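Researcher: Here's the sequence for the chain we discussed earlier.
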Amino acid sequence: MYRQVKGRSEATRKSTLEQAQRTAWKSLHEWVHLQLDRIEQKHIEPMEAFFPYLYDLQNTHTLYEKAKVQNFKLLENP
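Model: Thanks. This is the structure I predict for it:
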């Protein structure tokens, strides 16, 4: 979208930025609802859906898998 408005008026750039923000939020909204559907159908666990998929290259596990093995003790306050 940025390339489309380069060299255009300030009003056009502002309008395009606002549309880009609405589009991003709608995409996020749809993703969250898809995850909720997967949880409802018991395809995934809530933590699996919303916990970031950070990958530990040394242990070849996601952060979710590591936390699950430790009964999510990684999430407790020290």
